[in-house]
Amino acid sequence: MRTIDWVTAAARPDAASAGADDAGWIELIDQTALPGELRVLRIATVAELIAAIRSLAVRGAPALGVAGAFGVALAARQFAGDPAGLAAAVHEIETARPTAVNLARGVRRAAALLPGGSSAVLREAYAVRDEEVASSEAMAVRGADLVSELCGTRPRLLTHCNTGGLCTVTTGTALGVVGELHRRGALAGVIASETRPLMQGARLTAWELARWGVDFRVAVDSAGPFLMARGDVDAVILGADRICANGDVINKIGTYAHALGARRAGLPFIVVAPESTVDSDTPGGAAVEIEDRGAAEVTTLSDAVNPAFDVTPYDLVTAIVTDRRLIRLDRGDKP
Ligand code: MRU
């Protein structure tokens, strides 16, 4: 079997062209250890991959799709000659987290190649990865053009959660747009909301922006709408875990509050996500399972409710930028 060698490119810029041998493992950055430590996990079993997905060592919709596809290649190797074990392993990867459509999609794409053998599965996993790399690059350019069109020169952007190379493979979705604007000299700065309870903004977005040399500050989540109202922000830009047929956007908890703040302040609210996140089979946000991550991540002093994502109604979204389309929801377009 060829190497399953995948590391998000924030750690390994050559990852997109990683070579092949017989090792049979997945490498990925342990996002739970950042920003304190840049640790690379080497994952050799399905159980290890599922633990990495559930603990958010690997996270973010496109990265989950890529990890899931490579996970099927791992499963094909681990359960060779055991069809029932293989089917159960594939199902377990597919359902390891429920909300981002990319995970189940990546798994199903790779699993469809199982009759062709493990090398066919692995080829498909590499294709899923390479498509995400290309998507990120396309979104960065299209999104940067849109931000400049809507906001003029050197806007101040607010973003939520982490949407950089860590959550894709390289570049990112919304943060890829930020990086492109920065390269063009067309960005004044970024406010990253900290994204409680797991701090993807304060830990991961801040880490990526610092590496890119982007001028940024972190804000507590509840400050976002006030900063918009005060005139400190020119547009909100973030990613998605699923985009429904009616344009409803499922994304990290707190997104809806930022959309309300943007609407109140009259600011563009821009969602950047690959086509692999557009789910035309799901009519609207009410049909999506919102992951509940339990109380422990929030507090040990009392019980807690901990929905990991929320639904932002389509009529609060200005535009969705994908790798192939600009969908102007404010002008009546539909995904
Ligand atoms: O729980 P997470 O960290 O996996 O949630 C990730 C997000 O909500 C991101 O904003 C989303 O995946 C978009 S990034 C392409």
From TrEMBL:
Among the GO molecular function terms of this UniProt record, one is: S-methyl-5-thioribose-1-phosphate isomerase activity
The cross-references to SUPFAM superfamilies, in alphabetical order and at most eight, read: NagB/RpiA/CoA transferase-like
Q: What organism, scientifically named, is this protein from?
A: Krasilnikovia cinnamomea
The name under which this protein is listed is Methylthioribose-1-phosphate isomerase
Q: Which family does it belong to?
A: Belongs to the eIF-2B alpha/beta/delta subunits family.
Question: Example GO biological process term?
Answer: L-methionine salvage from methylthioadenosine
Q: Name one Pfam family in it.
A: IF-2B
Superkingdom as given in the UniProt entry? Bacteria
Which keywords are on file for this protein? Isomerase
Write down the InterPro entries for this protein, in alphabetical order: IF-2B-related, IF-M1Pi, IF_2B-like_C, Initiation_fac_2B_a/b/d, M1Pi_N, NagB/RpiA_transferase-like
